[in-house]
Amino acid sequence: MGFKITALFWNVRNSALMIVKNSFVFVIKKSAFRGILAAFLVYSLKKQCMVRVGLVGGSGLEKLNIVENKRETEVSTPYGPPSSSLYTGQIGPCEVVILSRHGREHTISPTQVNNRANISAFRELKCSHILATTACGSLREEIRRGDFVIPDQFIDFTRRRHLTFYEEFEPGDAKHVPMADPFSEYLRGLLIKGAEDLGLPVHYKGTVITIEGPRFSTRAESMMFRTLGADIVNMSIAPEAALAFEAGIPYAAVALSTDYDAWKTDEAPVTWNEVVRVFNTNVGHMTRLLINVVSQIKI
């Protein structure tokens, strides 16, 4: 049951805060009020400082000039080493931990990314949230090159990834994790608002289909993905999102459309050089969006 306050009054003569609840009047003297206010401010600051955001993305994320007091740290996990050492630092009042999904020099293929170690490393460093960045191919005419998509669903089309932390179950404790909505609605809301505030072209939802890679889709596969209801395609998000969900860490992704995969017949199919060109053209927008969102995350 909530405590509903009927009215608040400041009694100038007695320097006291008067709280009216129905027919009862509670009086807090000025000296006590100052103490309560100070305690509340300390509590709010501590709560805000508890935010530690994991940032995972393609190679070069750690090179963006978005983090103050940057420090490099090594983390060991029960699943082996993560894709790279991690950088810790600050964006505004929030601590951040940055990891390069494919290694610093983009030497790890999508199949070989140790997603369990990456998510476990964020958990070891007590990250409260995870934001992921990714390039993606568009499967819809209306999702243009340079557009941002905030996925709300995924289809896992990978074949060779480790997709769970649960190799076996304890008797009577099967870990069939419900995952109807795999992305954090809270983080998705912040990403959408942040993109709107910055005037970026953003699609509020979308289904991402994650393929095994490292090759791109055939034209038949790309057409099939459209038929399945997917809106964008990439090679990384589904395993990350599933493992973060199992780990109990709120996770959301922001995808930048760089191409039209292979389904469109009126233009050339996707190439790696085109992906890199479009992504690099829009990296400033991605940087501003991350700074905007991270600084607003609360526990």
State the helical fraction: 25-40%
Please outline the major beta sheet. Answer: 11 strands, mixed
CATH-level-4 superfamily name of the largest domain: Nucleoside phosphorylase domain
Overall form: globular
CATH fold-level name of the largest domain: Rossmann fold
Number of domains: 2
CATH architecture annotation name of the largest domain: 3-Layer(aba) Sandwich
How widely separated are the two ends?
A: 23 Å
Structural class by SSE content: alpha/beta
User: What is the arithmetic mean of pLDDT?
Assistant: 87
Radius of gyration: 23 Å
Low-confidence stretches: 1-6, 41-46
CATH class of the largest domain: Alpha Beta
Q: Strand content of the residues, in percent?
A: 25-35%
Keywords:
three-stranded antiparallel β-sheet; eleven-stranded mixed β-sheet; 2 domains; 7 helices; Rossmann fold; 299 residues; alpha/beta; disordered N terminus
Q: What does this molecule look like?
A:
The chain has helices spanning 30-49, 115-124, 185-197, 219-228, 237-247, 272-281, 283-294; strands at residues 7-11, 16-21, 24-29, 52-57, 68-73, 86-91, 94-100, 129-138, 148-149, 153-157, 202-203, 207-211, 232-234, 251-259. It is α/β, with parallel strands linked by helices and 299 residues long. The strands form two sheets. Strands 4, 5, 6, 7, 8, 9, 10, 11, 12, 13 and 14 form an eleven-stranded mixed beta sheet that branches. Strands 1-2-3 form a three-stranded antiparallel beta sheet. Helix 4 (219-228) links the parallel strand 12 (207-211) and strand 13 (232-234). Helix 3 (185-197) crosses helix 7 (283-294). The longest helix has 20 residues, at 30-49. The radius of gyration is 23 Å and the shape is globular.
